[in-house]
Amino acid sequence: MKILICDDHKIVRDGLKQILAQCNEALLIDEASNGSEVVELFNKATYELLLLDISLPDKSGLDVLREVKEKWPKTHVLMLSMHPQEQYAIRALTFGASGYLTKDAAAEELLLAVKEITKNGKYISKSLAHCLALQLKSDSNQEIHEKLSDREFEIMIKIAAGKSLKEIGNELCISSKTVSTYRSRIMEKMQLKKNTDLARYCIENKLL
User: Fold this and answer.
1) What angle do CA 84, 148, 157 make, to 5 degrees?
2) What is the value of pTM for the model shown?
3) pLDDT at 96
4) What domains, with CATH codes, occur in the chain?
């Protein structure tokens, strides 16, 4: 199996490569430091598994996930993140991820996840299964941001990160006016008025 690791910190990539070297399924391990490099490498080679960090310098890991699954749907993607599972895991699975691990997971769990994904196409840890079960509760028990659509959530994160409407529009291939409409809808659902309020909310809820 050919594996690609994408993380903007080399020390993390080196650590992951050392762990994956113990896996018999890993025949080749390449690495990328950002989303653009992932696309470049995929245009040159075929990878069965992508280990993908959510926080990247050039674009969101969720954006990269969606692009990879659209262009190379047979590739399995295991998301890695410093963010707690309940913040991003369900979104990632919705976008087509095969699994989600926090970076504090033990090496043994990473190897187990790779083997399970290789065998069955998915890896759902006990803690993630618990998160999924909680998601089935009524909307009244949800955090406010969980009521946003996937596109609204995506744009909210970009706005909170300080990107302009034009920048967001260019990244998502939509007009600034459309982004503005999404922003108004987000602010209404979140019951907020300013971008700074949105940024504060995302920081407090560990979405950034």
Assistant:
1) 60
2) 0.72
3) 93
4) 2-135 (3.40.50.2300), 140-204 (1.10.10.10)
